[in-house]
Amino acid sequence: MITTYPLPYPLDAHLVLDRLRPFGDAVLLDSAQPQSDPRFGRYDIIAAAPDRILRHDRGDTRIRRNGLWQQLGGDPIEHLKTLQEEIAVAPGSSELSFCGGLIGHFSYDLGRAFERLPNSAEDDLALPELRVGRYLWAVVIDHHRHSSQLVALPQADPHQLQMLQQLLSETSSITPTTAFRLHGDFSSNLPRDDYMRAFAQVQEYILAGDCYQINLTQRFSARCSGDPFHAYRALRSRATTPFSAYLESDDGAILSLSPERFLRVSSHGDVETRPIKGTRPRGATPDEDRALADQLAASPKDRAENLMIVDLLRNDLGKVCRAGSVRVPELFAIESYPNVHHLVSAVTGQLAEGFGSLDLLRHCFPGGSITGAPKIRAMEIIDELEPHRRSIYCGSIGYVSADGAMDTSICIRTLLVRDGQVHCWAGGGVVADSVGTDEYQESFDKVNNLLAGLREL
Fold it and tell me: Which of 101, 139, 277, 406 could form a disulfide with 401 if both were Cys (CB 3.0 to 4.6 A apart)?
């Protein structure tokens, strides 16, 4: 039986996270409250103190129970399925998006657990390829119904729940911490000349028929100190994106301000993915801004690039969706964010009998919008041409609720703070008629807002 406890509304999700950080492994899935479309900006989910943590790292899978780590063998997704099944409730048991369950990150390189890939790129950050906690309670803020609730599964500790209710009913401000600071400029792991050489090699692969599209990425890094949550709050004030997230653990902090949904599954098995392909910067005036959006909507190159990924994702969904259920209800829609316009499509389906949310994740991971097509060959080329593994970038953050529902993002516009450094990535899809200088500039258009925000702290 799921139990809910009412909390005040409005409720500041960042203040809630601040109160829960001492519990450990705090997570925030932050909708940023955009009012234009409640499908993407309805819920904030905050949780901490998971009773289990599963961690997959270069073929080594471990689970933490009662503070102790135990080594496991086998498929990490199967272990996640077991953790979810142990707390499963019937579909429709809750009206909330999340009623307790799994929350965590899936790094881009988790794809190596499912496919045989080369090992050319240096693995210098060594972030776990999967770190997922099982959370028996969470604070869920619903900005559509204007309500806040503490929701708990039957396995949650009642004494802890009582303490949480008291803690969350107290009025206070966010605890002062050490301000986040950069110590030096950002440097790229793929400077302009290196980028142009990699771009030329991609073009050769395309002309040779190896691939149709490759997502080519560079990484920006700088030394830093201070509280990453301070940085997240500052960046979040500059960018209201519907799939924002903040996760902190012994493995570092992940700050994500992503506009892109990867996979959503309802508790009854309805599936949606929303790939982004096609970008333009925002204009300095309303007329210029409108012209740039119209240019993107009409661009044959960007529409072709988007369509390639739609076809790839239709194929990925078809592996686990009921035959004939895969549809494309939206094609080439324009979505606008503080620093860019994006070209977005939607692909939907219905899970086939015998498949659940985590099966869908396994068969679609990583997202096709950030690899290229065909996917496996694109991933091989990415490993050859990008000097370092991508870590959290182009991976995913999200939840699998106890009722089987799932929602996950694509980790673009995402930063990793780890071992005294902050890292941020940006890239774009390269196709046959791409122009190298344009693609190089597009990567800066995508992250300039974030990098500038950190410099100003």
Answer: 101
